[in-house]
Specification:
Strand content: 25-35%
Largest sheet: 11 strands, mixed
Radius of gyration: 24 Å
Number of strands: 27
CATH architecture of the largest domain: 3-Layer(aba) Sandwich
Number of helices: 15
């Protein structure tokens, strides 16, 4: 690991409150203390006005080096979370020589106009970059900064290629329709919290972070079986005071609306500025960050690809800004505690001022291997996987119990199909789920409580420590006796004491088995082929004596939109529509179900 990037953990109070299902927004500052180091070196201008081409004026807080001598490259971030949120970051970079602007996006904070999340940022960001380049303290070169929503803003700004934009550093960037407001067309009920947070103009952080309030609200709706389509109005988010269009939550799958909010292939092809992308193995917007990475590197020129660097740490959404030594209950090594602000600063120094390349960036892709507690490097993300093996499912017909699990084997599977029954009227899991820390990688209570209502398959025990790095895929033959249902597929490491660590997961709604753009209800009780190929990237050294465990289960959570298995519009279904479904998972010679395992490189 490069010198200067390992740092001691600095506690951030809000980091522990970030829910795994809230992919978008928790802003995380560079430090948690009230005193701001180096603030005496910074000159502050509050309320700078940025005119946009359509006549709207945005509000910015400007942090400048107190003794700046002549124009210099500038940094900018745009946020819907009110500009003071990033006060520490503004001070950090200004104290080190970079003027730093925090801009309230249109309709938020003290900026004019009406805020509609995602829709406005592309054109507005271009205007901001061009305005900043003309300021007397700027030398005409602008770089962007920011994570989560601000990471998305950087991508759509770069797609328009404003001439002054020199580099982007998107962190934990959501990709609309892919990882927000849901995943696999299964929407986050918790996202209603975000809707309240960005309603109106002012900050709603105290409301947003009140877990008891939101857990109580969502559990009550879950237990009563109320329709998802009424969730916004239930907390006052009606059309006249909401910044979130209703079709975002109730539209059919990933339709043209979502496509309009991300760059086109042509725009990615033309994007040739240096890019540093940062995400985490447990980041709930990892799918978005990697989708941006893949689309850019797939379409860009060889020169542009060589200037795109990707870092995947062992982090959740919040820790992509401030790494922590324990993520989801999983302890990590000191090497995981990268000084992210320093990495940003060294990147800007390299790209904007010709300094040495950051020592941490040894190759275009850096990924952390938990268990081994080390960083590995590759030319491309695909090169993290050295070999893929097909492990077939098999059983003696009793794989619905943890103590009689089926098996995962390189040999073709055998045995009668395994089954579970799922009644969406059963809401007993809420009492357990509310006690489980969102994003936990090690808590087993929900798995144990679901015993008998899921199917389980174990691999043989690993005789030696083995690195698994990349993306799992799962091909399955599944039969159901209702028009629709939801599946979650999870892969765990299970140690010799029975402890589990979640490695990766995927989820799918049966009606979208032919693709996210298609919606076809199931009209047969015969098995159909399902392909689960949207697992998150993971990298972990599995210990000797451990095994892999595959669990296929229904989704029955108060944190997501509930499917009552009835067909029709899922958002409008209620408990009265609920149908019990029987799920059969086949694994015979003619209908093999297979887990594809991505093995990483062996240590030399």
């Amino acid at each position: 690991m490069g010198p200067g990037y390992s740092c001691l953990y600095r506690g951030v109070a809000i980091g522990a409150l970030i829910l795994a299902s809230l992919a978008i927004v928790a802003p995380v500052s560079a430090a948690g203390e009230r005193a701001v180091p180096d603030a005496y070196k910074v000159a502050l201008e509050w309320g700078a006005k940025i005119p946009l081409k359509d006549g709207v004026t945005l509000n910015a807080t400007v942090y400048r080096p107190k003794h700046q001598h002549g124009p210099t490259p500038c940094l900018v971030t745009m946020t819907p979370y009110i500009s003071q949120t990033y006060h520490r970051d503004g001070v950090y970079f200004a104290a080190r020589g970079y003027p730093f602007l925090v801009v309230d996006v249109r309709g938020r904070g003290n900026s004019e106009g009406r805020f509609h999340s995602f829709e406005q940022e592309s054109a507005d960001a271009v205007d901001v970059v061009e305005w900043l380049a003309q300021q007397p303290y700027c030398d005409g070169r602008v770089a962007t900064w920011g994570g989560s929503y601000a990471g998305y803003v950087q991508w759509v700004a770069a797609a328009k290629r404003p001439s002054a934009l020199a580099t982007i550093v998107p962190v934990a960037s959501p990709y609309p329709g892919r990882d927000y407001p849901g995943r696999g067309n299964i929407l986050f009920a918790d996202a209603i919290r975000m809707g309240v947070r960005i309603a109106g103009r002012t900050g709603q952080d105290n409301i947003f972070f009140d877990n008891d309030l939101w857990n109580g609200f969502l559990i009550e709706r879950f237990e009563k079986g109320e329709p998802f389509s009424g969730i916004d109005a239930a907390v006052g988010l009606r059309d006249e005071n909401s910044n979130t269009p209703r079709e975002r939550f109730y539209g059919p799958g990933i339709h043209d609306y979502w496509k309009s909010l991300v760059p086109t292939d042509v725009q990615f092809q033309a994007l040739d500025i240096p890019v540093l992308s940062i995400t985490g193995a447990y980041d709930t917007t990892q799918w978005g960050a990697i989708e941006f990475y893949r689309r850019h590197t797939r379409n860009a020129s060889p020169a542009a690809r060589s200037n795109h660097y990707l870092v995947i740490g062992p982090w959740d959404h919040a820790a992509t800004r401030v790494p922590r030594p324990v993520i989801g209950g999983l302890p990590l090594g000191e090497e995981s505690l990268v000084d992210i602000p320093r990495l940003h600063f060294d990147w800007y120094e390299w790209v904007l001022k010709g300094a040495d390349k950051p020592a941490f960036l040894r190759n275009n892709v850096a990924y952390y291997v938990s268990g081994a507690e080390t960083w590995r490097y590759a030319d491309t993300l695909d090169q993290a996987t050295a070999e893929r093996q097909a492990w077939y499912l098999g059983s003696k017909g009793k794989a619905h119990r943890l103590d009689s699990a089926g098996w995962l084997s390189p040999a073709p599977g055998a045995g009668a199909p395994d089954r579970y029954r799922y009644d969406p009227r059963d809401t007993s899991s809420a009492a357990i789920e509310v006690e489980v820390e969102p994003g936990s990688l090690v808590d087993q209570r929900l798995i144990l409580a679901a015993d008998g209502g899921q199917v389980v398959y174990d691999s043989a025990v690993f005789e030696r420590a083995t690195e698994i790095s990349g993306f799992f895929e799962f091909d399955a033959w599944i039969a159901i006796d209702q028009p629709d249902t939801d599946f979650r597929v999870s892969v765990y490491e299970v140690d010799d004491n029975g402890g589990r660590v979640l490695l990766a997961s995927d989820q799918q709604r049966a009606r979208h088995r032919e693709g996210p753009h298609k919606e076809t209800l199931v009209n047969t009780t015969q098995p159909l082929r399902y392909r689960f190929d949207q697992f998150n990237f993971m990298s972990r050294e599995v210990s000797a004596g451990s095994r892999l465990q595959l669990i296929v289960a229904p989704i029955n959570s108060f944190r997501v939109q509930k499917n009552y298995n009835a067909g029709g519009a899922v958002a409008d279904q209620t408990m009265a529509d609920a149908r019990t479904v029987t799920v059969l998972l086949y694994h015979d010679e003619t209908r093999p179900s297979v887990l594809h395992v991505p093995f990483g490189h062996r240590a030399q």
